[in-house]
Amino acid sequence: MEDWKLALSALTGVQPSDEPAEQTVVEKNKRVGVVYSTNPDYAYDDDTQPQAATLPKNQQKLRLSMERTGRGGKTVTIVRGFVGTDEDMAALCKLLKQKCGVGGAVKDGEIIIQGDKRPMLLNILKQEGYTQTK
Fold it and tell me: What values do phi and psi take at 42, rounded to 5?
């Protein structure tokens, strides 16, 4: 069964690797979208960017707005402008949902809270230390 690997290595000049099949499957999963490259010097480059560090609360410039369009007539309050990691944004969203007693989610870098809760959210954010909130 190893004969074909030796024959292939003789043709290509590349030594056969003794890696287990599980590692190659994991490496292939990281390269989503790349099918095959004939370039021997090809290095796969994923477009992941490191997340920005979370700014202190008093430097966050959060903006509150109310939207109704594109949501089936439902009113939501959007919190925009948060600079930081996804985990910190999710923690802030959880805090706001609990204090308001409503549902919400984090999508596309925005915190979405159900209902028109702008005055309540403004008070909560100011109490939490987000002083530049409008």
Answer: -70, 130
What's the pTM?
0.62
Residue of 59, 130, 119, 63 whose CA lies nearest to 92: 130
Q: Domains plus CATH for the chain? A: 57-128 (3.30.780.10)
pLDDT (mean) for 106-114: 93
Percent of the chain with pLDDT over 70: 77
Q: Is 106 helix (H, G, I), strand (E, B) or coil?
A: strand
CB 77 within 8 A of CB 118: yes
Would you place residue 54 in the very low, low, confident or very high pLDDT band (cuts 50, 70, 90)? Answer: confident
For range 53-57, the mean pLDDT: 85
Strand order in the sheet with 110-114: 63-67, 76-80, 110-114, 104-107
Per DSSP, the chain holds a count of helices (H) and strands (E) of: 4, 4
